[in-house]
Write a structure and sequence with these properties.
The protein is mainly alpha-helical and 175 residues long. The chain has eight helices and two strands, in the order αββααααααα.
């Protein structure tokens, strides 16, 4: 009897986890639609969502949510910025940023407690998505343009979104 109860409990926990990950992927898809057109990479609320998914849900749930989101987009669902979807979107100029959401969610999940740790981890997580993003973008527009159009122009918005993620995290997880 204990084995059946344990298996049922484990099954419920697994279903809950993947249900939460699916909800997280929906939040990420919605955040992609809040977009300011820029070339070659649009400014969206996706990085804010990624930080919050990792910081509030933990690394495992954050990464699972991003992985589901990327799978949904790869299957052609219009979840990426501007309602885009499909494999072509994962091969275009923004692909590095999309893949950079995975390490960013994982790092954000390490935020833990303490305001200094949270601020540093969220900043590192946000910056971590730029490394593959700029590197991939450089293949399309060159390193200098990628650094300017794919990183420098985003720094003010990055600071604001990191501060917002920090404020939400502090409001929900004191200590």
């Amino acid at each position: 009897m204990t084995t059946n109860v344990t298996a049922a409990t484990r099954g419920m926990a697994t279903a809950r986890f993947w249900g939460m990950a699916l909800l997280g992927s929906a939040v990420l898809a919605a955040s992609a639609q809040v977009s300011m057109p820029m070339w070659p990479v649009p400014a969206t609320l996706q990085s804010l969502a990624v930080l919050l998914l990792g910081a509030l849900g933990g690394s495992r749930l954050g990464v699972a949510s991003v992985a589901l989101y990327l799978a949904e987009g790869a299957m052609g669902l219009p979840v990426f910025a501007g309602g885009m979807g499909g494999i072509a979107a994962l091969a275009g100029p923004t692909a590095g940023y999309l893949l950079g959401f995975l390490p960013a969610a994982w790092i954000a999940g390490l935020a833990g407690r303490g305001w200094m740790r949270q601020a540093l981890v969220l900043s590192a997580a946000h910056l971590a998505l730029f490394a593959p993003g700029v590197a991939w973008l450089a293949g399309f527009v060159g390193w200098e343009r990628a650094a300017m159009a794919g990183f420098m122009l985003f720094l003010p918005g990055t600071a604001v979104k990191t501060a917002l993620a920090f404020a939400v995290l502090r409001a929900t997880r004191r200590g």
